Amino acid sequence: MRNLLVNQDRTTFVTLACLFILFVAGGGGDAAPSLAGVVQAVVAVMFAIWLMTLRADEVSPPLATYAVAALVLALPLLQMMPLPPAVWHGMPGRELMRESLALVGAADDWRPLSLFPFETLAVLMTLVPAVIMLFLASSLRSSGRLLLLILIVFVALLALAVGAVQVSGADGNVMRFYNANSAILSGFQSNRSGQADIFLIAIVCVGAVTRELYPKEAIASRRWRFLLLNASAGLLFALAVVLTRSRFGMIMVPLALLLQMAFLRSALNLSRRALVVGGGVLALCAFGGLALIGNIPKIGLALSRFTTTVELRPEIWKDTLYLTHKYAPWGSGMGTFEPVFQLDERLDWLGYRIINRAHCDFLELYLEGGIPAVVILALVVMIVAWAAVKGLRQTSGPGQWQIWCALWSLCLIGAHSALDYPLRSMSVEAIFAVMVAIILCGARPKKTRPELE
Predict the structure, then answer these.
(1) Which end of the chain has a smaller Cβ tally under 10 Å, C or N?
(2) Is residue 187 within 8 Å of 198, Cβ to Cβ?
(3) How far apart are the C-alpha atoms of 374 and 272, rounded to whole Å?
(4) How many alpha carbons lie under 13 Å from residue 26 in its C-beta half-sphere?
């Protein structure tokens, strides 16, 4: 570990600092817009200073990094470009805007594709730190990217410590950063689901870091020590996921623990059958433990979420699907879900709080971005999938565990995005960008700089 830090260049430390800032202060989302603006400015300034003092031969991100960054930023930028009235008048869903502007004599003004351009600008600003992290992480050596995984585990432990105070403290607890009266473990996030994802990713990061730091022979010779340490860390983060009360997170805990153990399988000389059986026993122990401690109020409240009789998501999805037809094929503009939903919301929703998300990032993306967003998403997925396959084929030993860990993280966030909105947090966006960078760098045909493996 000491050698990892000693042999790093300044790019690594800038990347670690930016990621730490995004972890600790970038999880507020809509609950803390002012803080989000400060975080965006700080990260941008750090990146600008790094760029201005950069030597031409110091970094070499893969070409795919530039492609992914351009695709991510292209849509909100294009949606804010002014269009002539002959163009935007003919776009679906603009009738009410055209009639409203006609009342003040502005119907023939040039207007952007986005119905609410300032909301689209806000989305663009939240994407900038993620793109910065993509470039920084892509500029690191393998050892530097390993340090990013270690930082994820460290910050998850820090969030767990903060969460212990959040759960046990009284109302008005200063550690409850975004909701002083909530006894849910949310760590540094305003959304508990985002924090649950970070804990789940940290579980697998522990296994990946173990394989990257220690040779197979060292793990085999101290089998029980490594097994105990990994199992303890995994179960600790698993308990943290339960205390977030995220249903998706709790469902994914057994899979995360199984994948963590899968990383150690070859080093521990475990057969696949032994791994599956061991994973099953571990899952049974976990569920048995939850059953035993289910009477503890905090655990009982978390488990009771599976027995809820009111679930609004299907109704939100149905109304969002209607809106996608209204604004297809060009969409309503990135970040416009909340105002667009309110324009057409049913009277049934008036008794509930404001619906600010579709609780399905893919559906919300299609509503806001239309067909262009679907095409961009497909291209990014194809680039990352191609890089992952290429990286796993040509990478052996140190480095392959980083790619597997990154794949798990991206699949986890992707699966969660089908039911919620984890990527609306700059912290989770930063993790996503780091994992994409790990995969893209793993597909490099050769090392461009000396690696510390």
Answers:
(1) N
(2) yes
(3) 38
(4) 30
- Phi/psi class of residue 342: alpha, beta or left (left: φ > 0; alpha: ψ in -120 to 50)? alpha
Residue identified by tokens 């039911």 is 419
- Extents of the domains making up the chain: 2-442
Which residue from 22, 28, 431, 32 is spatially nearest to 190, judged by alpha carbons? 28
Contact 264, 227 (CB under 8 A): yes
Whether the Cβ atoms of residue 102 and residue 111 lie closer than 8 Å to each other: no
Residue 329 DSSP code = T
Tokens of 336: 């416009």
Q: Report the distance separating Cα 400 and Cα 267, nearest Å.
A: 14
Kindly state the average pLDDT of the residues 80-100: 92
Q: What is the largest CA-CA distance in the chain?
A: 80
Q: For 93-97, 305-309, 331-335, which range has the lowest pLDDT when averaged over its residues?
A: 305-309
Mean pLDDT of 314-319: 92
pTM of the model: 0.91
Nearest to 211 by CA among 237, 196, 229, 199: 229
